[in-house]
Design brief:
By secondary structure, this protein is mainly β. Helix content is about 15%, strand content about 40%. The radius of gyration is 36 Å and the shape is elongated.
Length: about 200
């Protein structure tokens, strides 16, 4: 009887110890997670160069005289934008050059042989380590009057809040005066700057 009681007590104690030990393991095995944010940021970077002056050269073909020239818009090397973003270059022009005396001359702009209308996109540049270019062609008929013909050229750039008419736009070593700053409904994507440029006869 004493032996049986001793065995039963031993079994009871063993069971108690086993249950206690098992409960402790279950409690300590709970998963505990943590997280760390690892990041860096790169600002979009690009430079678009537009010739400051384009002088149209006299071209004579089968007795017909025109004034023509190409000019190239260049996106610098290592242009970097966010994914799916790109830079558009648009041309906005009246299509008419005028002298100080009031003589007017129509002219055409074309890209790849296709005539470009005012407001059309003439170049699209995307992220690329190499320089990118887009070539436009300007042509005008032989004018009836002598003089220096002038036009208004519009550049489109990404939006920034501090540009005003006291600023100057420099392209190709030449300086343009800003005639108008259009914030394009303040969408904070682009600014449209209307500047004065001289075509033909120097700067």
């Amino acid at each position: 009887m004493k032996k049986l009681l001793t065995i039963l007590l031993a079994v009871a104690m063993l069971a108690t110890l086993t249950l206690t030990a098992f409960a402790a393991v279950d409690q300590d095995s709970a998963s505990k997670d943590g997280s760390t944010s690892v990041y860096f940021e790169i600002d979009p970077t690009y430079t678009i160069t537009i010739p400051a002056t384009v002088e149209l050269a006299k071209v004579e073909n089968a007795g017909v005289v025109t004034y023509e020239n190409d000019y190239t818009i260049t996106a610098s090397e290592n242009l970097r934008l966010k994914k799916y973003e790109y830079v558009e270059v648009t041309v906005t022009t009246s299509g008419v050059m005028m002298t100080e005396e009031g003589a007017m001359l129509d002219y055409d702009i074309s890209v790849g042989g296709e005539t470009v209308e005012s407001g059309d996109v003439v170049a699209i540049f995307e992220t690329n380590t190499a320089a990118q270019t887009a070539t436009m062609h300007i042509s005008a008929e032989d004018p009836a009057y002598a003089g220096r013909y002038e036009d208004i050229v519009t550049f489109t750039i990404r939006w920034r809040p501090d540009v005003d008419m006291t600023w100057r736009v420099r392209h190709g070593g030449e300086v343009y005066g800003i005639l108008e700053v259009n914030h394009l409904s303040y969408m904070r994507d682009y600014l449209r700057l209307k500047c004065r440029s001289v075509k033909g006869g120097g700067t």
